[in-house]
Amino acid sequence: TVLAHNGHRVKLWTRNPEQAAEMRERRRNPRFLPEVELPDGIEPTASLADAAGGADAIVVVAPSSGMREVARLLRPHLRPEALVVHATKGFETGTLQRMTDVLAEELPQADPARLVVLSGPSHAEEVVQRCPTTVVVAAQQLEAAEMAQDLFMNSFFRVYTNPDVVGVEVGGALKNIIALGAGLSDGLGFGDNAKAALLTRGLAEIARLGVAMGANPLTFSGLAGIGDLVVTCTSRHSRNWRAGSMLAQGLSPDEVLAKMGMVVEGVRTTQAAVLLAQRYSVTMPIAEQLNAVLFEGKTPQAAVLDLMGRVRTHEIEELALAPWTPGGAEHGRN
Ligand SMILES: NC(=O)c1ccc[n+]([C@@H]2O[C@H](COP(=O)([O-])OP(=O)(O)OC[C@H]3O[C@@H](n4cnc5c(N)ncnc54)[C@H](O)[C@@H]3O)[C@@H](O)[C@H]2O)c1
Ligand SMILES: O=P(O)(O)OC[C@H](O)CO
């Protein structure tokens, strides 16, 4: 809707032909965003050839679990010069890859330096109402990020650029874990102090893993870090927060996911984060405890006791004393 508002002709692809037909006829997306009328510039289609064949830019927003499949379907239709932007917040299960890495593998005709990630505090429910929203676009190549900035930016949707693809992707993925924890904490009546602690110490462990993976620590004080963490832990729109509050009512993770009927990225991301923390030799106590609650039957009360009873420690860590350069981890830093 932002792109259509900006005057672009938008083909909205779904794999489901009935859904495409329904959106074409009713000019609404009844299952996922019923309250908004689709602007005239949007043409729903179930044909990826139709959607992507002539496109100057492609925006991929599949859940992380479907990113590789969607990229494979896209491969025969993508023009090499088209700008590829994704707004997915998660890692691939199994490979633990970031989304731009999955896209780079599956779309060999796309220049990896021109792959763009769009992230930040942006609940769709508010964006479609044109509530003031700020996001960040990151790409190795500044020109690509600026092209995405120009495509999306308008009076209610402000877009910043950042060269730190790793930090923007990691911040967007990991905040969902903390939002699950915040929902759980709120659902159990643990109070505002506990939620503030989760956000603050959550940001510390997000940055710890992110820096180990090559991110700029300053990215985590930006929109893809603290910005998205705040909105996802506090907004009534957050599926991750809502899923956490359902866990507090005693529902199992499978029951919660079935009841939500929409993607809750934080569940898989919690598992991925624990594995990434092992791979990069960093500690992520909140993710580890949430993982135990989600998948090992640990009670939230026992998890909180274990978090509060950890060995005493300093608050501030030496995250990155060396100046950050794009691609730091790939070049042997850390
Ligand atoms: N909803 C938001 O406000 C918001 C904001 C920013 C980023 N995101 C991110 O966008 C991604 C998608 O979230 P969403 O809110 O659109 O989820 P959603 O559950 O509302 O919709 C997901 C859509 O993807 C489709 N899908 C699932 N697997 C697919 C596959 N393999 N191939 C093709 N289509 C597939 C589903 O049928 C559904 O139409 C997530 O990573 C989420 O974190 C969402
Ligand atoms: O509804 P959630 O919890 O998936 O969060 C959506 C967006 O990531 C918020 O920026």
TrEMBL record:
The active site is at K175 (proton acceptor). Its EC number is 1.1.1.94. Gene3D superfamilies: N-(1-d-carboxylethyl)-l-norvaline Dehydrogenase, domain 2, NAD(P)-binding Rossmann-like Domain. InterPro entries: 6-PGluconate_DH-like_C_sf, 6PGD_dom2, G3P_DH_NAD-dep, G3P_DH_NAD-dep_C, G3P_DH_NAD-dep_N, NAD(P)-bd_dom_sf. Pfam families: NAD_Gly3P_dh_C, NAD_Gly3P_dh_N. Residues 164-304 form the Glycerol-3-phosphate dehydrogenase NAD-dependent C-terminal domain. Pathway: Membrane lipid metabolism; glycerophospholipid metabolism. NADPH binds at R15, K89, A124, R239, V263, E265. Its main location: cytoplasm. Residues 1-144 form the Glycerol-3-phosphate dehydrogenase NAD-dependent N-terminal domain. Catalyzes the reduction of the glycolytic intermediate dihydroxyacetone phosphate (DHAP) to sn-glycerol 3-phosphate (G3P), the key precursor for phospholipid synthesis. This is Glycerol-3-phosphate dehydrogenase [NAD(P)+]. It comes from Gordoniibacillus kamchatkensis. The gene is gpsA.
